[in-house]
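Researcher: I need the complex structure. Ligand is zinc ion. Inputs:
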Amino acid sequence: MFDRQCLLENGRNKMIVVPLGIASATPTAVRHLPAVALWREGSVFLFDCGENAQMSMLQAGLKRSKIDAIFISHFDVDHYSGLMGLLSTLQLQRRDRELTIAGPKGIKEFIEWNLNFSGVELGFAINYSEVEEGEEVTRVIDEEDYYVEARPLKHRRFCLGFRFQEKDKPGKVDSEKAEKFGITEDQQFKDLKAGKNIKLADGTEIEAYEIVGHPRPGDSFAYVSDTEYCPNAVKLAMNTNILYHEATFGNQLADKAKETGHSTAGDAARVATEAQTKLLVIGHFSARYTNLHVLLKEARDGFYPTWLANELRPIFTDPTHERGIIKPKVEIKDLTKSSSSSDGRPSHSSGRRDSRGQSRGGKNFRPRRGGSGGGNYRSDNRGGGNYSRDNRGGGGGYRNNRYNSGGGDRNRDDRYNNRGGGERRSYGSSSYNRDRNDDHESQPKKTITPRTSYDDFDRF
Ligand SMILES: [Zn+2]
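Model: Output:
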């Protein structure tokens, strides 16, 4: 369960990236058109707005009214087909707050023509930030504590990549020292944080560095889609916490990628390596890949800290922050302790696992959904469609793994191993199975709820 209060208290200044659509060109039954949300301090920033983006936001628990800015990379229809629908929703919600929309030149004309065509007069102002071809780098937003810059990528048509960068934050105030010096007034703290020296009542001058630590670097996120490999992608992604990069094709289809102005998984890994990003998340998958682990493997061959984007699954810029914010809903037995007992042995071949859609292929999922009716499926899996999207996208066992691995004492490396990684997936699933099998053997019933990304963060 997502603990909102905890997030507000501890999650300040942290960013959360939520892929909303990870398909390219055409949606599939389980993947939607491109859109990625960035949550930061209660505000939402939307990168591309494919059809279904606003519904996915609802499912993710991201409030559409909280959108501060929308960034459109280019005018291939799949990347902006959800825009007018979203604007209409904002209008119907009686939004009155200004909205920033950034994109290639023409975005303003497109929106105004559409509004005019439908005779809609918006109740809120749109602040357009248009980028013309030929501009090397443009700051499309520049706020007090963050900015967003755009650079042209290399696609068949003019296409922009974006980087969201928090500005450096002031260092932490050493409160013990401050007390010793007798600093009490708010204004004095403010001045010190701003790097100014202050004078106490007795005339003593205190220099800022005596009380305030080093400035802390801000978090950053780069959104790179659609493009062939290009140096601007590297510039956008340089030292970011998270790079979201398209990987439409596998390395085998490198020719096709070049022909259509897209990247392979290997290209994405190359950009991540050159940019020394901390985490690469690949998305924008061609519909031909039903098993995305092919792409994950190829990307990891070049850049190990890579995850598959999973629709609706949140990614924290600072993973240590997940602890305390996402709380396990159920107690799950420690596998390391019970693995020696015979009844506790994970049953890897269980058909039940398959029927729940946790197996690698989606084959078993369809008949079940059709056969047992939507209501049943939904109550069973709690996220309904989300659940299937989650698992089909790969790495479905991540959530189980997290809590099975005991105590939630994960470090960043753990995350890399678990998230998006198919290797350990059956491990998590089978522990779930074991509990189910226990039921069969009339042992005391465990209360266990299958976890989905929907459970995790539907409250912010
Ligand atoms: Zn695209």
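Model: Summary of the prediction. The chain has three domains: 4-169+218-322, 175-211, 335-456.
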